[in-house]
């Protein structure tokens, strides 16, 4: 009877317990080919960023003055830029910087937005009113304009730019967490825990945070994609990563200046950004299905063609 409930997988030495909900993400991933491809692409990009010194044929700062603005060749598979630097090497090293920038931005957004949302949703009253007025004020500004303004105040550089983007992400996450907490406060198990005198700190740690993290994880995945676009935008405007550091944003900036002379140079960083952003969005959709407790345990069926 126990084996039917918990689906225990017995081996000669150990017993591993797997519930249907614990195993469903793998079934869904294998059944959803699009999400599987997106996950593989993200893993490959992360590995390329980590192993950049081993994979890149040249240093991103090495210059070949005899091959300035050259096209693809045996020596330079993607060609060279205006300073004779290998585009493939800069693309690989740029993945490391761009991903790092996106992670920093999302991390800052989580560190600010989640506590603000928890406090506003759980304590309510004047705390909620004050915090949400600040959130509404930040959300009233266009995201890019707010990021440029904060970035200009903090100064140029990767960390400063991504802190600015993280501040833009914070009100989005705060509003999401607040909504989840307001819903949780009406749940029976929260009322029971309150009746039994559970402390506020224990209530938030044991009951509130675990239940709000599902949508936060999904939203953070989408924000990773937006963070990549934000890094590229700010670097393109000269407020993000500064030359000669290689990032996909700085590659776009330098190649755009020579778009009429060597138009193919803009394709590599542009395609890399597009593929990575699309992959993160597809992975976010997949995580939304997997982490949603209302999602059926069977894989999604393919849509029939009309």
How much of the sequence lies in strands comes to: under 5%
Q: How is the quaternary structure best described?
A: single chain
- Integer average pLDDT: 82
DSSP summary: helix tally: 12
What is the number of E strands? 2
Transmembrane segments: 34-56, 101-123, 130-152, 158-177, 212-236, 256-278
Protein name: Peptide/nickel transport system permease protein
Pfam family, one: OppC_N
Keywords: Cell membrane, Membrane, Transmembrane, Transmembrane helix, Transport
Structure report:
By secondary structure, the protein is mainly alpha-helical. It has a domain at 102-291: Orthogonal Bundle (MetI-like fold). 69% of the residues lie in helices and 2% in strands. The chain has helices at residues 2-6, 20-31, 33-50, 52-55, 87-123, 125-140, 143-154, 158-184, 188-195, 200-236, 248-256, 267-291, and strands at 8-10, 15-17. The protein has a two-stranded antiparallel ribbon. A hairpin with a 4-residue loop joins strand 1 and strand 2. The longest helix has 37 residues, at 87-123. Mean pLDDT is 82; it is low at 1-17 and 301-306. InterPro entries: BP-dependent_transpt_permease, MetI-like, MetI-like_sf, OppC_N. Belongs to the binding-protein-dependent transport system permease family. It is found in: Cell membrane. Pfam families: BPD_transp_1 (PF00528), OppC_N (PF12911). This is Peptide/nickel transport system permease protein.
């Amino acid at each position: 009877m126990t084996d039917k409930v918990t689906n225990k997988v017995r081996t000669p030495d150990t017993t591993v317990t797997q519930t249907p909900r614990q195993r469903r993400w793998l079934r869904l991933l294998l059944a959803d080919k699009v999400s599987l491809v997106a996950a593989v692409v993200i893993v490959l990009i992360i590995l390329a960023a980590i192993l950049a010194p081993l994979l890149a044929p040249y240093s991103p700062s090495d210059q070949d003055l005899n091959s300035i603005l050259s096209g693809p060749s045996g020596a330079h598979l993607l060609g060279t830029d205006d300073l004779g630097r290998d585009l493939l090497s800069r693309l690989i090293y740029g993945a490391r910087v761009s991903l790092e920038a996106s992670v920093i931005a999302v991390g800052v957004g989580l560190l600010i937005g989640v506590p603000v949302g928890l406090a506003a949703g759980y304590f309510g009253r004047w705390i909620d009113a004050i915090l949400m007025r600040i959130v509404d004020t930040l959300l009233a500004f266009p995201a890019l304009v707010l990021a440029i303004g904060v970035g200009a105040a903090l100064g140029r550089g990767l960390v400063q730019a991504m802190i600015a983007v993280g501040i833009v992400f914070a009100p989005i996450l705060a509003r999401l967490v607040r909504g989840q907490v307001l819903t949780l406060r009406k749940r029976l198990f929260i009322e029971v825990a309150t009746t039994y005198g559970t402390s506020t700190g224990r209530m938030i740690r044991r009951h509130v945070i675990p239940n709000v993290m599902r949508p936060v994880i999904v939203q953070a995945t989408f924000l990773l994609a937006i963070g990549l676009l934000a890094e590229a935008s700010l670097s393109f405007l000269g407020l993000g990563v500064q030359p000669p550091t290689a990032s996909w944003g700085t590659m776009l900036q330098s190649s755009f200046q020579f778009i009429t002379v060597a138009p193919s140079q803009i394709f590599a960083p542009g395609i890399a950004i597009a593929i990575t952003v699309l992959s993160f969005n597809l992975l976010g959709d997949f995580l939304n299905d997997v982490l949603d407790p209302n999602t059926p345990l069977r894989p999604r069926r393919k849509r029939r063609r009309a």
